[in-house]
Amino acid sequence: LEKRNVFEQESEERYRLFFQYNPHPAFLFDHSNLNVLEVNQAVLEKYGFSESELLGKNILDLFHSDDKNSAEEEIRSFAFGVNKTSSSRHKKKDGSVLLTENTVYKFRFRNQILGLAVVTDVTEAVRNRESILASLEEKDTLIQEIHHRVKNNMQIMVSLLNLQADNAMTRELTSKELYGLLKDTESRVFSMALVHNELYKSRDLSHVEFGGYLNMLLQNLWNLYGVGTNVKHEIQAEELQLDMNTAIPLGLIACELVTNAVKHAFGESGSGRILIRVFRRDDGIRITIEDDGKGISAGWLAEHPDTLGLQLVKILSKQIGGEFELESLRPGTKFCIRFPEPEKKT
């Protein structure tokens, strides 16, 4: 009998050491009334209560109000000697919520039915999982959006090529003229590709900073057409974030008008200046492109309405709900595109 008592004391001491030093919060409670009899140090650290605040407290009071009934049903239905694990929400002293996995063991000890609950805090794991799932969903949406963008832009490219082909069919082309048409096509395709490049570098993947985009577009046009240092360009742009559906038409418009100025505005001297301004007004956004070259009269514009470049500018201006107009300067020409500022979707 004495040996048995010694063995029981040693077993109880081992149990207490295991209970107290368990890194997971552990509760010992009376199964009949669910009052807490003992807690370990991990409970005090995790929940923020003192030991005196917890002893004698009904363990259900730690559960979120929506989880209390189901938790009580589960605890009452446990069989002896069987571990039962369930998920729930617990309340800390400061009112914050823990997402938990609870393993409960029901047993007899000295003619008393007790419950031992060991709690694993899975709050961070659940949040991480939710974040990963949200990220995967966002990526799926993004992939669909990219496919949609590529499809739309392929359609725009086909339309541009058809316009160019129809325009070329109206006259016999020399090799030099054909080369020029291909260069124009290259510049248009680049202006569209550049929008995509800027989109994928931006954080929200849906808007580009238009002033920076214009800078890179003009650098490419200068390289593509071999424009010398005699033709200067300047961009004065307010901070403006544009979505792809607006940035691509505007990029193509800028490409057409700047290319036209580079090719035709400065005559044999080949020197001049191109100024692009981007700014807001109460009724929307203005983009002006002006040069100090030999100029285009409004009369000439009326007599040549069907040139490919002007067709594109008119079509693209209409596409963004804008208006396009020309002003004759002395010297030079000024084009102005007015359009409503798109609403930025969040």
UniProtKB/TrEMBL annotation:
Entry's Gene Ontology molecular function annotations: kinase activity
Protein keywords: Kinase, Transferase
Lineage: superkingdom: Bacteria
Family annotation (InterPro entries): HATPase_C_sf (IPR036890), HATPase_dom (IPR003594), His_kinase_dom (IPR005467), PAS (IPR000014), PAS-like_dom_sf (IPR035965), Sig_transdc_His_kin_sub2_dim/P (IPR011495)
Domain PAS: 11-76
Annotated Histidine kinase domain residues: 256-343
Protein name per its UniProtKB record: Histidine kinase
